Amino acid sequence: MTATQNPARAGAGAGETRTLTLIQAVTEAMREELARDERVVVFGEDVGARGGVFLATAGLQAEFGRARVFDTPLSEASIVGAAVGMAVRGMRPIAEIQFADYMGPGFDQLISQAAKIRYRSGGQFTAPMVIRTPSGGGVKGGHHHSQSPESYFAHTPGLKVVMPSTPYDAKGLLKAAVRGDDPVIYFEPKRLYRAAKGEVPTGDYTVEIGKGAVRREGRDLTLIGYGGVMPDAERAAAALAAEGVEAEVIDLRSLLPWDRELVLESVSRTGRAVLVSEAPRTANFMGEVAYVIQEELFDQLLSPVVQVAGFDIPYPYVQDKIYLPGPNRIAAACVQALNY
User: What are the Transketolase-like pyrimidine-binding domain coordinates in residue numbering (predicted)?
Assistant: First the structure.
């Protein structure tokens, strides 16, 4: 079963559409932004002739030349540092870090430089840059190719952090990130690269960073997730519906900022919230969502907020199906909330 998207929601008012995979939508967004704005450049390890390890940049160097789509040394610190320098000097870099697990060497440049340049310069400089990186598990990548480190970056004021789960959002969020004036960490759930298929407009559009989306309406509880867990969340909701339980499914899409209003409005109606992510449980970003829900809606909750997450261990190569929140774990958490 593939993760699909509601064409009526996706293409509303956007004209003609056609079906793309998530990775095709990412490629198309970069191609269109390269053509639209000569300040845009794309670079990273093997992104040129090879087109990247997942082929997200396939064909871009041939189309736009080596000066605008180019390979870098095997140095994430240099990649991020170069992106910061280019952005400060007026360019619009899109830098690829081959796997989110390798963000570490560029951490200081992101946290100490990109995130703070607007504030430390009193608004004289900005860093309009995008760091694209495949994230999460589900593809048998092992310990160093499967982690979900988004919470590190969602803790950093000055950055924006997004993670799409549909082709429509993948394209629209990436285009919005390129056109904005802030540094954006753009996580791509690699297990959805070719599994997620949906209708994408042929015309130009963006998706506003900071706004979530309702994937399924419901009245009995609110099921909230983002990125790679969304297809399983929707499967869990469908299974609950067969038993007469209507779960409202919310896709956050953006973690920094995140759509507090959408979440609080939904939970205030349903009285129950189940939060899903594949990152380790401790200091998980969803803990912040849970805190805001109880802070704002304590007297309206019918049950404690329940979180379904990965475990506090390095990502397991051979037991990733146990580690990842699947529809069974998600549905069980929903039953727990309903039976409280």
Answer: 20-195
